Amino acid sequence: MIDPFHINILSILVFVIAAMGILISMNNLIKVFLCIELMFLAVSINFIAYAYAAHNIDGHVFTVFLLTVAAAESAVGLGILVFYFRRRSVISVADATVLKG
Amino acid sequence: MIMAAAVLWIPLIGSCVAGLISFFNQRTMDDVAKLVTCMCMGVSALVALDLAYDVIIAKKIVHGEMLSWIPLDDHHKITWGLYVDSLSAIMAAVVTCVSFMVHIYSLGYMKGDKSIARFMSYLSLFTFFMLFLVMSDDLLQLFLGWEGVGLSSYLLIGFWFHKDSANAASMKAFITNRIGDMGMVLGIVGCIAVFDSVSIPEILLKLTTFDEAFFRLTDHLTINAYTFICISFLIGAMAKSAQFGLHVWLPDAMEGPTPVSALIHAATMVTAGVFLLIRLSFLFEYAPSVKTAIVVIGAITALFAAVVGLFQKDIKRVIAYSTCSQLGYMFMACGVSMYSAALFHLVTHAFFKALLFLSAGSVIHAMSGEQNMRKMGGLYKHIPVTYALVWIGSLALAGIPLFAGYYSKDWILESLYGYAMDGGSIIPYIIGLSSAFLTAFYSWRLISLVFHGDCKADERVQSHIHEAPMIMLIPKVILAVGAVFSGIALVGFFTSSQLISGAYVFTEIEHHIPGLIQVLPIMVALSGIALAVSVYHTQRNKLAIWLVRFKRASAIIQSGFAVDEFYRKAFIKPLQWLGSFLYHHIEKGLIDRYGPNGFALFISRLSGALRYLQTGNVRDYAIVMIAGLMGMLGYVVVVIK
Amino acid sequence: MIELIKPILPEMILFFGACLVLLLDVFQKFVDHLMNLSSVLLVLCIVAIVLGVPDGVYYHNLCVISMFTGLFKIALLTLALFQFLATSFLMDKYALNKNEHSVMVLFLIVGACVMVSANHLMLLYVGMEIQALAAYTLVVMQRKSEYSAEAGVKYFILGSLASVLYLLGASYLYGAYNTLYLHEIITAIKAGSTLGGLGSILVVSAFLFKVGLFPFHQWVPDVYQGAPTPSTSIISTLSKVTAVAVVLKLICGLFYDNKSLDTRWIFSAIAILSMIVGAVVPIVQTHMKRFLGYSSIGHAGFMLMGIVNIHVVGVSSIIAYVLIYSLTLMMTLICLMSLKDKREPDEERNDLELSKLGGLSQVRPKHAFMLAVCFLSMAGMPPLIGFFPKLLILQYIINQGQMLLTVFAIITTVISLFYYLKIIKLMYIDMPTKQSIGISVNVNMRLLWVFIPAVIIQLLGCYIPILQTIYVQYVTPAAETLIIGTNEKIYS
């Protein structure tokens, strides 16, 4: 029997992988965005598992909203990416340290 | 009430207008500034004369509140009030009249000075604060005027602020007066403690119901409250009126422009101390020991200043020490409860001293700024009017009959004699007489050195000697009229009426004054004149040779018995040493280094270090965020129940 | 129908108004007037809030209308109105499309209003995202600036991370209590569970990020500096006010009277560390907006002290603090904006070097005075209005016996006074140099319409009765609704 706890472990694993991904892939903004999407998905799994276990529809609805908002967020993020690329000609943020100190 | 308010506030208006013109540096408006200040002063003087006439003839007291100042509760409130009795009215009239003359004189004297608007503004402000002082109905308000007078004198003495000596002199006047201010504050606090009030009429009212009051210092040591309060006020009065010990600022105050000296000496600053003694006479009557102290201080000052005045080279310093000496007379009169005599002498003195100072100003003006009398001489041909006026002023100062000074000084001497007859010491009287002799002597020394003999100035200066313009002569002539006639005109009024309302009522003891005593002052004065004339006209060289032997002694006397030197060695040097020790070792070495500066250094280093945490790299930001979050979550897991 | 949408009428006005502005932007004819239209929308919205529905919960407990929400919404709209009035003629200098800018601000306010009155974790999330996406867009609006791009990327990555953390927290709360309604969670959380505790901390920390508090503070200076100044002024005030409102709501709900989880140490530590960062680091800063960013971290820390022990007085002090502080900050930024020279946008970063303020009092006395008043107000100088919230919070924590916090608060306030005064010294004592800003600027007199009310507001501190009336009549009841609203009373 799979209960929410196991799915919770899975979700945390995915979440941590994505977080690590963000930290180590700063040289490529697209990878960073992918990792953020992955985090959204990890949370979605969590919601669905809890909703399923509790026979409660709120979690499902939240997931739908979450995916929609994530899409919008990706759109804005990609827009910023394009803008950044135009100004810098790279998509790495590892050395984006003009603003510091 | 409205008249009194007008007398008080109109000079301030003039001062503000001139001050604004000066502040915005409108040189083209200088004439407006001059006109406005003089007109305001003139109006104020006229109204003050009218007010004095009203108050004295009708024997009424103008007393009103202007504004609430410090409302504490129903019974204790301090208000801005006006209190004009005959004392205040006479003071106000004298102050405004002399000030008006000085204003007009300044127009000529300061002509061409580029900050004349500022000068006129300060003069009016000075007058305003003095009026504020004399018209106030409570001690706090009086203290405000007191401080304002100190401030204005500071501003005016240091008017030529590009001169180092002027700055030093203004600082000296200010700091010396601080000592007196401390006395004033202590006195006011004492009044609050004893009478629960600072209002002068109220204190007078309560005083009649109180017997004695004591301040308990320790279990066994108590001090009579009245004595304490009176000593405090006496210290205040001594500093303002330049009595011996706190007189050091007065000669140095000659650094200011001459009209300022005239104003300080005749009307505004130095008379404040005497005014305070007269105003609070009812209190002093309860402290006989303090009255004795006043007599002693006055006697010392009178004699000391007269002796020092003998040895001065600077024309203004001679007159300054003369003022000091005359103030000693006023103090002595206060000390023997002859307050009317003190006030009378104050009034007459205001006229002839202002006259002398303004004349000295003319002399200096004529000599192109030269103040050393040894370099003058033979001026009577060139500036005859000033010469005549100096004669009038000196006759009045020496106390020659028919001139103003005679009546007041004679009265003071008579009362000192009466004091001796009443069982007091005869010494004050003797000192008074000898001071009168010295006064006459140094006055004619001045006249001889300045106006007779050969001119010892160089050619260039000599060719420039000229009589002062009309605008400088007219005020002097008016003052000369006062110096001649104020005594004879007012003597009946001062001696007859119970002048100082609200003061302690003392009964005048009718002494039988022997005829010899009556003529003695005149004899003394005439002999002083005769001696001076004989010494400086006939045997001048002999005296000089004779004096050379006592070079050292005369140098000490010339420096005012080395009081300044004594102060420097006894107070200033040790204090400087202590200050520098505390500054270098305690303040800098200990407190600053490990206190504020150390902390500031630590913070700025910390700041420099912390900014490197902000690397600019998003990865580091994310790591900090997640690490912080992990810490919080870990804490939650541990503590949650 | 109108009855149905009445509770969210303000949000509707703003949302459809924003869409309308976006549409009309296409037509050349209207381009110049759209900023005014936006201002009119804001005014309409304020009217709708004032005349709106009575306090209570609407749409099946999704949306709360109370004194608290009304106060914050009106504050947001007023701040935005100030910004619009002051900047409508300044935008050209920034190479910004002012209509797009105002559309984004309107959307940001929609999100903010949704957040303030949300009673459901999902609604809160949606509001937060609307607001955040608008904010990201505002940061990157200056299309020629490298700094803008970098700030935008940083803000986006860290902001997304924060919203994911919020989602994780929300999912834990959902898992623990099987509900997404805030009031139900608040009731249930009293029982205490590890999952719920973790979730609540995660949810709150997402908003601590928005406020810019210690471990989540590092985006603040970078974004403030990189963003064009009009956007900085929006992000630093509107976003912060909203985030503070939500933080207050969440903390009062989740941790009030919560026996199972004692969060006092967490918040004390965050407050102290934020105050230290906000007091110490600005000393060495040379860029004006970066400096303001760091100092705003310090102010956020100061505010947070009021909620370490949850009580009505503390909450109302925080509300007063955040409103007054953000108004002052906005005035400062508007002042700086009006001093902008017409230069290449790429020089935006260097445009506001602190040293360029040297001798401003001689070049632009009105601006210098305004800035001095604002800085003194932020430093908490008594006659100015900024003194009072500081006093309230200090008084509160002293009454609560939080001596450690008090000591740190006072030390850091003193240090912060130093750097504010340093700028005033720059403006009033130093001589103007060739680099000084404001020499070549042609300042529009319309700014006086903002400056004069601003100075009057700042000087309100001289007449305490007005402040007291406002505080007692509006702020304290708002705080009370928050604390009392956590129990079941108003929920059907």
Overview in brief:
Chain B is mainly alpha-helical. Helices cover 73% and strands 4% of the residues of chain B.
Textual characterization of the structure:
The complex is a heterotrimer of chains A (101), B (641) and C (492). The longest helix of chain A has 31 residues, at 58-88. Helices cover 77% and strands 0% of the residues of chain A. With 101 residues, chain A is mainly α. The termini of chain A are far apart. Chain A has one domain (4-88): Helix Hairpins (Orthogonal Bundle), CATH 1.10.287.3510. The radius of gyration of chain A is 17 Å and the shape is elongated. Chain B is mainly α and 641 residues long. Chain B is 73% helix and 4% strand. Chain B is built from 26 helices and four strands. Chain B has helices at residues 2-23, 30-58, 86-109, 116-135, 139-157, 164-195, 200-207, 225-240, 249-252, 258-266, 271-279, 281-284, 288-310, 315-335, 339-366, 384-398, 404-421, 427-451, 459-464, 470-496, 515-537, 540-548, 551-558, 563-594, 596-610, 618-639; strands at residues 62-71, 77-84, 214-216, 222-224. In chain B, the strands form two sheets. A two-stranded antiparallel ribbon of chain B has the order 1-2. The longest helix of chain B has 32 residues, at 164-195. Residues 501-507 of chain B have low confidence and may be disordered. Chain C has 492 residues and is an all-alpha fold. Chain C has one domain (2-490). Helix content of chain C is 70%, strand content 1%. Chain C is built from 21 helices and two strands. Chain C has helices spanning 2-5, 9-24, 34-50, 67-87, 98-117, 121-139, 146-177, 182-189, 194-211, 219-226, 229-255, 264-280, 288-304, 312-338, 348-351, 360-363, 365-379, 387-399, 403-428, 448-459, 464-484; strands spanning 56-58, 63-65. In chain C, strands 1-2 form a two-stranded antiparallel ribbon. In chain C, helix 5 (98-117) runs parallel beside helix 11, helix 10 runs antiparallel to helix 13 (288-304) and helix 14 packs antiparallel against helix 18. Chain C starts with a helix and ends in an 8-residue tail after the last helix. The mean pLDDT of chain C is 86. Chains in contact: A-B, A-C, B-C. Chains A and C meet through helix 1, helix 2 and helix 3 of A and helix 6, helix 7 and helix 10 of C.
